[in-house]
Fold this sequence. Notes:
Distance between the termini of chain B: 40 Å
Radius of gyration of chain B: 22 Å
Largest sheet of chain B: none
Radius of gyration of chain A: 25 Å
CATH superfamily of the largest domain in chain A: P-loop containing nucleotide triphosphate hydrolases
Strand content of chain B: under 5%
Number of helices of chain A: 12
Shape of chain A: globular
Structural class of chain B: mainly alpha
CATH class of the largest domain in chain A: Alpha Beta
Helix content of chain B: over 70%
Oligomer: heterodimer
Number of domains of chain A: 2
Largest sheet of chain A: 6 strands, mixed
Number of strands of chain B: 0
Number of strands of chain A: 13
Shape of chain B: elongated
CATH topology of the largest domain in chain A: Rossmann fold
Amino acid sequence: MIRLERLNIRLFQRRKTLILAKDSKAPETMIIAKGLTKVYGDFKAVDGIDFTVTRGESFGLLGPNGAGKSTTMKMIAATSQRSGGDLLILGKDPNDQGPEIRAHLGVVPQQDNLDRELKVWENLMIYGRYFGLSRKWLKVKIEELLDFAQLADKRNSKTEELSGGMKRRLTIARGLVNEPEILMLDEPTTGLDPQARHILWDRLFRLKEQGVTLVITTHYMDEAEQLCDRIMVMDKGKIMAEGSPAELIKNYSSKEVLEVRFGSDNNAQVAKELEGIGERLEILPDRILVYAEDGEQCLEQIIKKGLHPVTSLVRRSSLEDVFLRLTGRTLVD
Amino acid sequence: MAMDVESKVKMTWTGAATLVDPKVSMKRGALYIAENRLLNMMKWWKSIIAFGLGNPTLYLLSIGIGVGSLVDSSLGPNAIDGVSYLTFLAPALLATAGIQGAMDEVTWPTLQGFNWDKTFFSMNATAITGKQIVNGILLAAMARAVLQVFLYGLCLMAFGAVTWATLPILVLVSSTAGLGFAAIMLGFAGTIKEDDGVFALVGRFIVTPMFMFSGTFYPITSMPLYLQWIGWISPQWHATNLGRAMSYGMPIESWLLILHWAVMALMTLFGMLWAHRVFEARLAK
């Protein structure tokens, strides 16, 4: 009887420890921004935006160059001070506790700011040292990171000898050296060839599977669709829309899109005759987009009218279409 | 390549919340930056040693020995301050070595950090602050100055101008001059947005005149008053006078001795505060 009681007490204490451990975990909401603003002189780079990011989420900022994505990232990275609004990262205010926040973040900037005089492994070692990590621990971690970034055979190369894709992977590996709570990637695959992009996406997807919170800026819709659970579409410093890729497409576009070309000089003229076909038309200089549930049916209607497009293509709606709908512009101008 | 993509990657993950104590970086950040700079310096160790020994050897052979024998033969072997011309010259040459060495460590690395590779931004993306970057660079610059002065000192010792007894104080004085000048140059370097050869101008119109008019080759009092002010504001003169007083015992008023240390300390302090401000503002944009 006494033994049973002792066992019960031990189990209770263990349960209590587990509960306490769970409670002492970092908050589930990783980032909260309310009315976040950044002003440079007369120019409002970020204009009062609200958003939250939760643990394990892969959150994307999608928008064209100059939309305010990188400025937002710098404020989340606790390096650039906000001009207005509230911002909490990992439960802390970056204006008061910048270094404390940055110690638990991983940052992959748009430009690979690696130390070119140092070898690949030295770049990882010295960066780990900035976080106060011991050389002994880092030696083991560096091997893992080199494997992850597929750079094990380049360990002793100088960074200037690496290709663009390799540099990018090294910068990402560097951003992981402190096992960050949030990994922030600013335009991770800009300037890379398709193969290098796919390798990078694979590596990032693995991180996502591991439960690392990702915040990604991109102006590539396919990248946003591949990597992000939730997307915030930005333009001119403001949020245009927010949701999962599927939600955004459902709310702001049709299921399918028919693209027809009648020649650059004729598109605008022909568009008048297409009125009433599909749910909506978008006339671009080089083509007409017909948004509809059934693209093939729309094409048949066009041909029945005696119009014969030079080329036609039926495809699924993408985030590019969402952006076009929201801003009247394409993502990559 | 497809094989590579599918390769298995094992990654252990404790998580920064447990792994990283921000207080460590907040306390030792400047040391980590100095560690980076020393690692960078080690990539150039052959050039640093070759320049550190070669430059003074050539200089001493031409000016020190050449001009020295002329001065000694014209005025007598102990004409200036009761010592040989080379002994008189030695503290000034060491101050120059300290200033040059420290300056090399604040100018190019700052252009690299802010403009070329933007490595300062990567440092600042961690718990490291702009102030710590400044302090770390200055620590490394001081280390470089000590090394450069020491190597120069060894050459001077070979020519009999300094001894093991006088070398330590000369290293201290000359490196402090280097630190004072480097701190101001660091603040200035932080303001440069585009490298348009400004450091070549600094070398030509600030460092060289400082070397020429700071009592290097003859006592500053031999110059007309309208030129003496260059020496008064130059760390070169303060270190040279201090070095002469503390190595071979050149007569000096005690207030002047204190003033020399105070000027170099104030230069360091002013430069550091300026650099802190410039770096913090530039990194926060």
